[in-house]
Amino acid sequence: MTVMDSFALTGKVALVTGGSRGIGRAIAQALGEAGAAVAVTARTDEAAQRAAEELRAAGIHSFGVRLEVSDAADVERAVAEVSDRFGEIDVLVNNAGISVGGAALDVGDDVWRDVLATNVDGVWYCSRAVGRRMAARGGGTIVNIGSMSAEIVNQPRRQISYLTSKAAVHQMTRGLAAEWAPLGIRVNAIAPGYIHTEMSPVYEPEYKPWCVDPAPMKRAGEPHELGPAAVFLASEASSFMTGSIVTIDGGFTLY
Question: Which residues form the Ketoreductase domain (predicted)?
Fold first, then answer.
């Protein structure tokens, strides 16, 4: 196998949660370009199907699936649906997540629960459902999308539920990596910094001074810049890596 061959995902089946836009959509595109058949999920069937159609237009074998990751039963249903349609899942990317700001003393219980249910429970439910099938087949790879916010406290925005949830994702990554390595399952994570998406207008005047200017590279990242890292972690190119957190933040956390 050549170096470049080790990055190939030809013949693999990938599932990307929250894959209809932003970071998830870019990662789905990258996995597909590396040769994988890609199932993408969204909370609505319309969004999932639209993303799948876009990927198919780019020559990628794709399938859209409605999924609420915070619902364990719905996760089991979606994983079975993907497996029946595409074949067993070789690569799982746990990307679905939400962020709701608010000072700690003002955050309502409903917000706290919603964020933790999506960002933590969702990663667990999907990892468990796919992990069982991977274990039965002798292995697979899981890539979790964490955040640099698992390691720092973003200023001046207050987002205690998001910070807590992403720290949990990083530790879950390490815990599952240690437990599942004997089963042939590798579990790693990407920790993005500020990424410019439709939902994250980081160049707007009210955001730029605290999420772009402090970074040594003096810019935010673009979603497509995370795709190659996802391919690396999903492929044999990272065959001796598990439990790693790959930070991609333009140097933001150096200071």
Answer: 12-193
